[in-house]
Amino acid sequence: MLTIISTLLGIVTSGLPKLLDFFQSKQDQKHEAELTRLQMERELAMAKEGFAAQAQVEEIRKEQVAMQTAAEGIKSAHEHDKALMSRASVWIVNLNGLVRPTVTFLFVLELIGINIFLCYYLLNQPGLISDFDSLMTYIDVIFTSDELSMLGAIIGYWFGSRGWSKK
Fold first, then answer.
1. Model confidence, pTM
2. DSSP 143
3. What is the largest CA-CA distance in the chain?
4. CA-CA distance, 33 to 60, in Å (whole number)?
5. What's the pLDDT tens digit per position in 115-127?
6. CA distance 116 to 122
7. Domain range summary for the chain, segments of one domain joined by +
8. What are 104-116's pLDDT values in tens digits?
C-alpha cells in the first residue's frame, strides 16, 4: 500500500512545478488586477488635479525601468551560465546535466546490490527456507515496504513527469 502511495506521490510531485506555476499565474493575475485598479484610481485623482499627461509620462518611465531591469537580470543570469560553461570542459558540461540521473542510478543500483546479496545469503544458508511461509518472511526482509516506496517514488517522478510535460 505504501508503495502505491509513494508511486502516486512521485507522479504527483513530478507535476508539482506545473501546478505551482498555475497558482503563481493566478496570483499574478490577481495582483495585476489590483495594480490596475490602483493605477486607475491614481489616474482619476491626478486627472482631477490636472496631472493626467504627467502621470502618463511617469507611467511610461516606470514601465521602461521595470522592463530594463527584468531584461538585464535575465541577460546577466544567461551570461553567467555561459561564462561558467564556456570555461568548463565538455565533460563537465555533460556531467552537470547528469547529476540527478546519476544519483538516481546509484540509488537503484545500491538497492539491487543489497537485494542480490541478501538473496545470495539466504540461498547459501540451508534450513532458513523450509516452506512457503518462511520464504515470504524473508522476502519481506529483502524487499521492505520502505525500500519499495522509495523506488516507486523515484520511478513515479522520472516517468510520471512525461505525462505532465505533454499537457
1. 0.41
2. S
3. 98
4. 18
5. 888 888 888 887 8
6. 10
7. 52-87, 91-155
8. 888 888 888 888 8
